[in-house]
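Incident log, structure service

09:12 report received: a user says their structure output differs between two submissions of the same chain.
09:20 pulled the input from the user's history:
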Amino acid sequence: MGDLQRLEDEITACRRCPRLVAWREQVAEERRASFRDEEYWGRPVPGFGDPAARLMVLGLAPAAHGANRTGRVFTGDRSGDWLYAALWRSGYANQPTSRSRDDGLELRGCWVSAAVRCAPPANKPLPAERDACAPYLAREVALLPGVTVVIALGRFAWDVAWSLLAAGSRPRPPFAHLAEAALPPAAAGRPRTLLGSFHPSQQNTFTGRLTEPMFDAVFARARALGTGL
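09:34 re-ran on a clean worker, output below:
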């Protein structure tokens, strides 16, 4: 068994945060009417992608009826529709859709993860829940030594990524769409960069705060920074 698989097994068995365990399992039992005939995942959601990734995309947490239902990060909800379509347009994915764990989606040079692995009530993890998940992300990053660019989807992911990868250095650079901050080099000495993007939530995409060209520009910048295969 590889190290990434061992980490995945640990993540999916985690019960560290009682509030999150109760919520994810309640959602999985009650289900949304449109998914009432589906079996929900109802567990923590591991990262997904290419172990040789040069790009990591970091979100906030699984959606209650998205990844908490399907078991794959950013899969089965509108945010995932936006993300994987953008990854496909930029050459990081073999198809533009992500519906289920067995739909044939493959990522090329990219890994997708989340700062918190369980669906939180109101999509708002508590600081203690964020901190409880942080060691999983630290181990994941260490097992992806090729990553040179991290795209943080939203301020929460930006703050988590900076705290982890820059060891909490001050001052923390402000978050903005297409914000860019240099990170300490990886172990192999390769430079690393943190990129910011508005989260592809319905609140942002429906209002036009985030458009497809704006989103594509983030992945184009990641390409320019050397994350292509």
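09:41 both user submissions now match this output. Likely a transient worker issue. Closing.
09:42 reviewer note: Helices lie at 3-12, 18-30, 67-70, 78-89, 127-142, 155-165, 202-205, 212-227. The domain at 3-227 is CATH 3.40.470.10 (Uracil-DNA Glycosylase, subunit E).
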